[in-house]
Amino acid sequence: MLSDRALVRALAELQGNPEQAAAVVEKGHCVVLAGPGSGKTKTLTIAMARALIQDVPDPRGVACITYNNDCAIELETRLARLGITPGDRAFIGTVHSFALSQVIGPYARCVPVGLPADFKVASKSQMRAAVEVAHGISIGGYGNPHDRWKFASEKRVRDVDRTRPEWRGCNPELADFVEAYEAELRRQGLIDFDDMPLIAYRMIKENLWIRDAVRARFPVLFVDEYQDLGHALHELVLLLCFEGDIRLFAVGDTDQSIYGFTGANPELLESLTRRSDVRTIRLRFNYRSGAKIIRASLGALGEERDYHGIDGAPDGDLSFWPVPYGHDNQAEAVAKTIIPKLVEQGFELGQIAVLYRAAWLGDKVATALKEAAIPFFRTDTNALVKRSSRLARFIEECARWIAGGWRDAEPPYARLLSQAKTLVYGRHASEREEQELSAQLMGFLTASLGTSETTHAWLQRVARGLITPWRTIARNSEQEWDVCDEMISNTDPARDLDMPLAHFAGRTEGSGRVNLSTLHSAKGREFDAVIMYGVNASDMPSTRDKSSPGSLREARRLFYVGVTRPKKHLSLVYQEHHHSPWVFELYQRSQQN
Ligand SMILES: Nc1ncnc2c1ncn2[C@@H]1O[C@H](COP(=O)(O)OP(=O)(O)OP(=O)(O)O)[C@@H](O)[C@H]1O
User: Fold this and answer.
1) Rounded to the nearest 5°, which phi and psi values hold at 191?
2) Share of the chain above pLDDT 90, in %
3) pLDDT band at 88 (very low <50, low <70, confident <90, very high)
4) Which residues participate in ATP binding (predicted)?
5) Which segment of 19-23, 54-58, 116-120 scores lowest on mean pLDDT?
6) What are 355's strand-pairing partners?
7) CA-based max dimension of the chain
8) Over the chain, what is the mean pLDDT?
9) 23 vs 30: CA distance, rounded Å
């Protein structure tokens, strides 16, 4: 339970930092801008707890929007430490789930948006087919529809307000393409992912009573990682907060903007700081990393910033690992030399992370670690348990309960039931629905106790016993039910991927396993030691990164995100005589004072 005592303790922790302390008690619109490790997320979570206790009377609550499910889960974990759990008074989720569960779900049937009551989210193949139909109608079928769609979908997420002249004034044929595509989806009772914030925006803009209803429920809106959220969220914020009187508390760092390919634009956050009705607070200390790592990170960014380590913090250390030949040899060096050396220096495996650009590089590291018998936990797209998938995490928690967790309530059954409720009903289930769900879940879990099934066989039973019946009744159309099938395929015994259920159940983070993550998924996280793998001249930046100044800048920011994750030690691994140019700049800057 959210308690005054936990809040008093949390507020006391910020007293040494006047900027953080001022931000959490701010009663007007507030934007906190700061570099890595400066306590933005900590400030946001405490501000949220304070608002819930002191500013917003029950049953009203607050909403907190963030970029993706990874970030939402990280926030939920931090808020849970302050006694806040998502529920009626606190919405925590992505902008898509906010749009779907707080605007479209409750109000679409009251306004003419052209959605049937039982609308569904389109699958990838339905979206591709709709693009092809729309291309035939709007462009006459000339050229490759999917190549053309890339430009159309960029316009779709950028020009959010279609009543403005830019929508038809600039590239009208792309506007036609988008409209034909959306009409084709609607004809089938479908919406897609990008539709969610766009439809919510239009619903609110055209029906101001919906904005009032959202404000009645959530008088304060928190936004984490604002720089990674695109135009649709920004327009929603302008509508809800600056035209609609909901209080905004946003945090972000333009130097860590790494989702340009999804339409994110760091300028949107900058534009908020120029508003006279917003108080901008800049944090100056980096609590995470030693001074040497902070200096190195400025070399990685290639620009100076006014961030400092805290007095008395250890300097931190860097090591450089030139390896003859390519990725395989570099992965071997990570497994056979670098990790053992870090362990020798006293680092725990669970506090070491290996970061890389793409999941296929993670495969190479995983293979080398397997051969060296080093346990690891993957959080990239090739991971068995997708960190970003609530369904995958729920399945893993069920396995933990079966593999002994039921004895000491770790995880407690109530948590499993609440996760199941969210997956199927999006949190609001009737008493009868909840009872039926519980009977089904409890029946399944108890039938799994004491069996000697492997993970693959058990997952097949999960699919038959839970997923198949649930996906037919699911109201929460956002859920990716196919994740269970992916897990079944990723444990295929024919490819020697199966494992005992107890082994699968122990695959949680921080349990003595090295963390393997893409740079994107490492965002917002921290580790004692970080190994940046594959920092080669041809990978960072890649030829694709060099195709435009914007993508080159974004690649550099991605490198910076990785370099700013360690608290105490940063290792860089690259091909001998073929290192990224940024490694050299980083080295030079780390040597200066
Ligand atoms: N006032 C403070 N006193 C002590 N430790 C703090 C303070 N503020 C933040 N920290 C610690 O600093 C670390 C970084 O904080 P946090 O993750 O909130 O930073 P951030 O700005 O969100 O980082 P990033 O942008 O890199 O994700 C955490 O370990 C946090 O507990």
Assistant:
1) -130, 160
2) 63
3) low
4) 34-41
5) 116-120
6) 517, 532
7) 68
8) 90
9) 7
- pLDDT (tens digit per residue) in 247-260: 999 999 999 989 88
The predicted structure's pLDDT at residue 502: 78
Tokens of 169: 């004034």
Q: Which residues have CB under 8 Å from 337's CB, separation 6+? A: 321
Q: Is 252 in the pocket of ligand 1 (CB under 6 A)?
A: no
Question: For a substitution probing ligand 1, which of 38, 297, 301 has the most ligand atoms within 8 Å of its CB?
Answer: 38
Strand order in the sheet with 317-323: 317-323, 566-575, 527-532, 352-356, 514-518, 376-378
Rounded CA gap, 578 and 573, in Å?
11
Mutate which of 20, 40, 42 for ligand 1? The one with the most ligand atoms within 8 Å of its CB, which is 42
Pocket test for ligand 1, best of 14, 17, 41 (most atoms within 8 A of CB): 41
310 lines ligand 1 (CB under 6 A): no
Cβ-count burial 189-209 (b if 16+ within 10 Å, e if not): ebbbebbbbbbbbbbbbebee
Per residue in 399-438, pLDDT tens? Answer: 989 988 888 888 889 889 988 988 888 767 788 888 999 9
User: Using a 6 Å cutoff on CB, does residue 379 contact ligand 1?
Assistant: no
Dist. CA 465–CA 1, nearest whole Å = 33
**Cα–ligand 1 centroid distance for 13 (angstroms):** 11
Cis peptide before 541 (omega within 30 of 0): yes
How far is residue 9's CA from residue 19's CA, in Å, rounded to a whole number? 17
Q: Rounded CA gap, 540 and 15, in Å?
A: 40
Retrieve residue 405's tokens: 């967790």
Q: What are phi and psi of 363, to 5 degrees?
A: -60, -40
Query: Over the Cα atoms of the chain, what is R_g?
Result: 24
pLDDT, residue 182, reads 96
Token pair listed for 461:
């039973």
What is the token pair recorded at 269? 């956050």
Average pLDDT estimate for 265-281 = 94
CA distance 180 to 200: 19
Give the CA angle between residues 484, 485, 490 to the nearest 5°.
95
Cis bond upstream, residue 581 (ω within 30): no
Cross-strand bridge partners of residue 223 = 65, 250
Q: What is the predicted pLDDT for the residue at 479? A: 64
Q: Is 34 in the pocket of ligand 1 (CB under 6 A)?
A: yes
Residue with tokens 């994740």: 483
**CA dist., res. 173 & res. 151, Å (int):** 11
In the reported structure, the alpha carbon of residue 526 is separated from the centroid of ligand 1 by a whole-number distance in angstroms of: 9
- Residue 38 alpha carbon to ligand 1 centre in Å: 5
Q: Examine residue 59 and say whether the peptide bond preceding it is cis (omega within 30 degrees of 0).
A: yes
41 carries a ligand binding annotation: yes
Q: Considering only CA atoms, which of 584, 570, 588, 568 is closest in space to residue 536?
A: 584
Which pLDDT belongs to residue 476? 64
| In contact, 336 and 573? CB cutoff 8 Å | no
| Structural element, H or E, at residue 308 | strand 308-309
